[in-house]
Amino acid sequence: MNTPEFVALGYCSNDHLCRIPEIPGDGKIEMTEYRIQGGGPAGDAAVGAARLGLSAAFVTSVGDDMDGRLILADFAAEKVDTSAIRVRRGGRSPVACCWITPDGRRSVAWTKNNLELLKSDEIPLEMIRRAKILHLDGHHPDAAVEAARAAKAAGVLVNLDAGTFTPRIGELLELADILIASEFFARKWSGESELEKALAGLKTLGARVTGVTAGSAGSMLIAEDGTILRCPAFRDLPVVDSTGAGDAYHCGFGVRYLETGDLRECMRFASAFAGLKCGKLGARAGLPTRKEVDEFLRNH
């Protein structure tokens, strides 16, 4: 495989997806659909980048169990380079259980299964230095910080999906070139309930691009002069499952940012990529190809 342009480092899992009429509080309910599919923020981003036409690689650790073998097989099927994935002998791979209701909302319970995290000396430094973009989700914190430092020194764009409060997330926030947080993360980190104020607080960290995703409410970025740029979510798309929509947005934004510095265009592209993803069950099944995104945007 050629040197990957898009290197993602972070969490991936096998997602056990259950479509159900409603989430029971204390009882039983029959599933209407059940599937097992790869998931995880950075893992989904690697697959998304590959579908958008970039050469992609994923860096993480998995166990040598059945789930680990399925994770590796899923990436291979998507032509994502797995050469830097560490397989822990005797380890149990991460899994997640996802419940999806008919309106597309979901609840997720996940575990790392106490799998040994990547160490800072286990990352593929040369691969990262030769990439165009390094995508991080905050997981495997020691390896993520080391990778971000190497990328910055080499002039590689660091794209941070800030959605989870992981150890050393503060260091990653300061190393990010593109810092787009979930609304939950932005509010909690800043202590501001108003999203605009939370966004302004994140901007003080000094990233080239600072933004917030807000689900069906769309996304916001803050320009250099403090102007708030807003992009609504596309409303005329079917919503089967919103799992992984944020993962898709971060991937789509990063890929388009490599192609153009136009922030509004990046937001629009990322919104389309995330919206189209929601048309199928699971975080990855609905990730569209570049042709599909471009065709959609020509008509919307």
Automatic annotation (TrEMBL):
Q: Which UniProt keywords apply?
A: Kinase, Transferase
**Superkingdom of this protein's organism:** Bacteria
Q: Any coiled-coil ranges, and where?
A: none
Which GO terms fall under molecular function for this chain's record? kinase activity
Q: Per its UniProt record, what Pfam families does this chain match?
A: PfkB
Asked if the keyword Cytoplasm belongs to this entry, the reply reads no
| Residue ranges annotated for the Carbohydrate kinase PfkB domain, each copy included | 6-290
Cited InterPro entries: Ketohexokinase-related (IPR052562), PfkB_dom (IPR011611), Ribokinase-like (IPR029056)
Q: What is the name attached to this protein's record?
A: Carbohydrate kinase family protein
Which organism is the protein's source? Victivallis lenta
